[in-house]
Design goal:
about 475 residues; single chain; Methylamine Dehydrogenase, Chain H; 29 strands; five-stranded antiparallel sheet; mainly beta
């Protein structure tokens, strides 16, 4: 998108409004943007990890290593490394410099969810099927695995649990399973969510549970953290979404966690249809949240300040699963459960060509142009040659990129994924299919190019 041609009023929109297009390359099970928002990672049901270029919709990488469905994908802070977890009991750390598998970590059971440390790509936390969560350090040749606790910290239990018999409460907590493992924005703490509705905050360095809070009595299946690290959203089986303000923990809070405030700010639910939520995400600013619905094809958007519903995005005619919000643009992607397509909603950005030429005027119908008397007069050849030589001395940047608006520091932009020219060629059936209003122009160009090539081939055969 050329920012100089975009309408400034459309750029100020905080959330998407219209369906843009869809991408189809295999059956996608999960999707997530990198921190810069220029790449979209998709994990497929066959175990393949695919990277899309957000601007063009084309393929950037195809990485094969898993044998079963990919459950989660996590980006490193600089965007060079990618961690994928799968039902084949493996976590793979990919190096996007050349698309190689840097490390492969095998577990005893399927991996529900895994996330990289924000500033250390050799450290990640994983939630395992019917097992304790693990903190894995792969900085050494032999991975160091540290088991994390699922049990809540007893000193911070709620009044309901204190009223229950100790034996019954302990037996119930012992049966809990961890489904989600997240790092906070600085990586100092690990946030885990269990099937009993408990949220545990674990110190990364000591692996001790410093605080626990029960936000619901049902299982928490999804948890997302905003880019600022101050807002948390939880999706549970009781059909309610909950947002919680993440407290800024200090050393005093670790010693005495009784002063930590971890309360639900807003709850979001459909009181009429009583819909289940498949997945949820929070906007980069934390001002909006979105969620996909069970047995429905809509994406709901709420405002977090007042807790009011602001938009229902409609598009495909299939149930949606994984959703993710773009880090810098008002854009939301979601994966379809039936076809595996990736659906994209964005804002309608009409281009203003007057930004390049102030005297440019848009007309509704063709107008005959009357040129000036000296407009096309022949100029002096010496002046033309001098101007051409001056332009040849100028340095032209063909690979530089303008930064999109966002809150990134310079050190976060230091790495850009290179283009590999020796990658395997994909067959015609494996080409990315882009469908939607914004894809009409590119599809016409592609068909016109194919028709021209076919016509040229026929002329050559006729000449022979």
């Amino acid at each position: 998108m050329n920012l100089s041609l975009a309408d400034p009023f459309s750029l100020s929109q905080d959330y998407p409004e219209v369906f843009s297009h869809s991408l189809h390359y295999g059956h996608s099970s999960c999707v997530i943007f990198n921190r810069r928002g220029d790449l979209l990672a998709s994990g497929r049901h066959d175990g393949t990890v695919v990277l899309f270029d957000v601007e063009t919709g084309g393929l950037a990488r195809i990485m094969r290593g898993h044998t079963r469905s990919v459950q989660s994908i996590s980006w490193s802070h600089d965007g060079r490394y990618l961690l994928s977890s799968s039902l084949d009991c493996k976590c793979i750390l990919w190096d996007l410099e050349d698309g190689s598998r840097k490390r492969i970590i095998r577990f005893e059971a399927a991996v529900y969810y895994a996330e990289l440390h924000p500033f250390n790509h050799n450290l990640f936390a994983a939630a395992i099927h019917e097992d304790h969560p693990w903190l894995v350090d792969i900085s050494t040749p032999k991975a160091n695995r540290i088991k994390l606790s699922t049990l809540p910290r007893k000193s911070t239990t709620t009044s309901e649990d204190e009223a229950a018999p100790p034996s019954k409460s302990a037996a119930s907590d012992a049966k809990a399973l961890t489904l989600i493992t997240l790092f906070d924005s600085m990586g100092q703490y690990i946030i885990t969510a269990t099937t009993r509705g408990w949220v545990n905050i674990i110190h990364t360095a000591t692996q001790t549970t410093i605080f626990s809070s029960r936000v619901t009595k049902s299982a928490i299946v999804t948890a997302r953290l905003s880019m600022s690290g101050r807002s948390l959203i939880f999706n549970s089986r009781d059909r309610i979404l909950r947002t919680v303000h993440m407290p800024a923990l200090t050393d005093e809070d670790i010693e005495d966690p009784s002063g930590i405030l971890f309360e639900v700010e807003h709850t979001y639910q459909d009181l009429v249809n009583r819909l289940y939520w498949n997945h949820c995400d929070i906007s980069p600013t934390g001002e909006y949240i979105c969620a996909s619905t069970y047995m429905n094809h809509d994406v709901y958007i709420w405002e977090t300040n007042k807790g009011s519903l602001v938009k229902i995005l409609e598009g495909p005619k299939e149930e949606l699963g994984f959703v993710d919000w773009h880090p810098t643009r008002p854009m939301i992607v979601a994966s379809g459960l039936e076809t595996g397509r990736i659906y994209i909603w964005a804002t309608n950005n009409p281009q203003r060509w007057s930004a390049l030429a102030p005297d440019f005027q848009e007309v509704e119908e063709n107008v005959e142009y009357i040129e000036k008397e000296d407009e096309f007069d022949y100029k002096d050849r010496a002046e033309m040659t001098k101007a051409r030589l001056d332009r040849e001395d100028e340095e032209v940047d063909l690979i530089g990129m303008d930064d999109a608006p966002g809150n990134f520091r310079e050190e976060e932009k230091s790495w850009t994924m290179p283009v590999l020219l020796d990658i395997e060629e994909s067959s015609e059936d494996d080409d990315v299919k882009i469908v939607g209003p914004t894809a009409a122009t590119s599809q016409k160009k592609k068909k016109a190019g194919a028709a021209a090539a076919e016509k040229k081939g026929k002329k050559r055969k006729a000449g022979d």
